[in-house]
Amino acid sequence: MRSLRCFATAAAIAAAPASTHAAPADAHLARAGVHVVRTSTRVARASAPVAPAGAHGARARMHVAPAGIHAAPGGTNAGWAGTPVAPAVVPADSPSVVVVVAADTTERLRFAIPARPLADALWEFSRQAGVRVELDTAAAAGVWSQAVEGTYTAPAALRRLLAGTGLVAHFTGLETARVVREGDGGLAVHALAPITVVGARSRGYAVFRSGTATRTDTPLRDAPQSVSVVTGQVIADQAMQGMADVVRYVPGVTMGQGEGHRDAPTIRGNASTADFFVDGVRDDAQYFRDLYNVERVEALKGSNAMIFGRGGGGGVINRVTKEARWTPTRALTLEGGSFDHKRATLDVGRGFGPVVAARLNGVYEASGGFREAADLRRYGVNPTVAVAAGPRTMIRAGYEYFDDRRVVDRGIPSFEGSPADVDIATFFGNPEVNHATLRLNAATASVEHATPGGLTVRSRARFADYDKFYQNTYPGAVNAAGTEVALSAYNHAIGRRNVFDQTDLIYGLATGTVRHTLLLGAELGRQWTENVRRTGYFEGTATSISVPLQRPTVATPVTFRQSATDADNSTTADVAAVYVQDQVALAARWQAVLGLRLDRFSVDFHDNRSGEALGRVDRLLSPRAGLVFKPVEPVSLYASCSVSYLPSAGDQFGSLSATTQTLEPERFTNREVGAKWEVRPDLTLTAAVYRLDRTNTAAPDPNDASRLVQTGRQRTTGLELEAAGNVTDAWQVIGGVAAQRAKIVSATRSAPAGAVVPLVPTRTYSLWNRYQLLAPVGVGLGIVRQSAMYAAIDDKVTLPGFTRLDGAVFLRLGPALSAQLNVENLLDERYYATSQGNNNILPGAPRTLRLSVATH
After folding, report:
1. What is the mean pLDDT of the chain?
2. Nearest to 440 by CA among 389, 497, 391
3. Following DSSP, what letter does each residue of 99-132 receive, concatenated?
4. Is residue 529 scored above 70 in pLDDT?
5. What is the DSSP code string of 626-660?
6. What is the DSSP string of 801-831?
């Protein structure tokens, strides 16, 4: 966050009577992009701005002062001499500013906070009020808040939350408000002054709490796991277009080429197309996910089936979507740029009385690309509604329709161990044939209820229907002379329907000096999949043709029909799971997380061509254990061990056969130690060292090549460092370093022992900086460095390392209008970003400009 002030202008105003110069001065400051917030004539400045609600948490700050005193961010503390001075000056682009004012100018806000554990209630209070509160978590363990339902000032709402809890708010100086046991610390207790919230409430680069890692609202520093969060503000500042952009700033994760039609991450050396979630619910179809309705993206690294169920061997990626709120939202962004880029997004919402709130997010894009024949058309709408059904119950519902149509681009081939020396824009194949379509219909509903006895019941259901089709011609091997390349073709239709329901019971209690947050949950789900593949025949006869390497774009007609080995099958997968978890506060500095999940996962597979029916049932027991030590309050050290499984049907249920149905699930075991440090209330540093073992992998029997044995093993070891937040009031950063090594330890079906896993660079570095030069002007600069990596598991083709620089300029054009210019690959470096095997290599884009204008 930035807290830039016009002190000279304020001083000039202070030199004259306020009654004489107020209106002209206010107009002058408005033209300079500065809001003026008027209070009593007795004011003071308090240092450090309030962090945005998007980075809120139980450990947070709320700036307060006695009634009639104004607290503006930044600067040094002025005394309480009571000298009449000018109106307070607050930058118009300050992401979140709390102003303490006299009672007759207090803003009343709509609150809907059911009774719940106090840490959860204060988190929700922080989100709804747009302020931060610092909580003594030891004092609050096992304590439940009162419900707050209605329209109140923020101080009145906070008083109601604390009523009857034995806790009070203590203030040290003008900057920090702490909720502690009454009488603790010998601190003076001040009455809560009325406050007004000014500015946006969801900006920032750092996030301090999440409900994803533990299924309970928990400070991230108390989660014994590496969690990387890319906030909505980071996404907006970098004009990110999809998940591949997001993971550039997530250490330990790379994004594959995905055959030109899907997200395909490799997380800690383990590739998957299924380890995606939306608000904690599985979203495992193969498509490119858009970011138009995303509040933030969380990457939870390391095996963790206790929370997410089967799969997720290296980790998972969870999108937290925008929900209906009572806070008004009005945002329209229009974007255009290089290669015929055109995109518009809409985000509007508000409360309709004290009970109902609604929100609508939408996107439309019609863009080209730097690659020849590139074309993208997509649009989506996502309405959501929230209903405060009484002081203890919140109901939410939403629906999304998303349509994506694009030319499938499989990239370029390799030659002699490197990407082929061709123009990076060259298209290989027939662009009239290559296309992909995705239609998504998804409905969600959730209910959360807190009982008077302290039990929270939460249930979330999601139905999603994915209709996916892609058809492509693509390059194969280049001949030995380097003059011709082979082309092949196929198409694939995949229909999938998912139905999931998750129900959690959360209860806080104390046993002596030990405090517990207990979680008991269940998940039920069913997935139906239809899968049909057809081979492409050039001129109706040949499954492959050779074309000149330097002229590989063709118009050769292609027809599609099933070959002897093409798939035509249907699958039904069912999951029934129960899980239990205890988050234990053992002492003031020690915490533990212990969990266990039992899944019954069954797959019924039917081959529509042969009539063969196969099935398998697995019972998966997934433990999780973590220990957290806090030598001082802002620092936590942790150690953890967790397990996940991948059944023999594979990520997408397509690998089940008469042979593989006899195989036990693969096992992933993650051992990790790490440290997390909240350097300041809006800056976090994290570090993790891990070893992830993938075992029980199928391999050919050395004595009988027709048989499979489960002796294959893979190991990934690594170090991850991350930083996110505000270095100063004007300087925001997000970045990370990853050093990792992923190898085949003993032979698998894919590779011999000693092979290096593809798309796992040994070193990656990323750092994005945003600096606010003046109230209306900011700049951004980012660097992404990646070492060389292999394109496929045979280690025959190397993608060279590269360094890429990005930049941005941010302009505030008025109180509700802004513009920004993003430039990717500032130095126009030629590089190769990723691949899907040795001969589907995706070149990186040359210098790319995007200009956007947004209303707020």
Report:
1. 83
2. 497
3. EE--GGGPPPEEEEE-S-BHHHHHHHHHHHHT--
4. yes
5. EEEE-SSTTEEEEEEEEEEEE-TT-TTS----TTG
6. PEEEEEEEEEEEEETTEEEEEEEESTT----
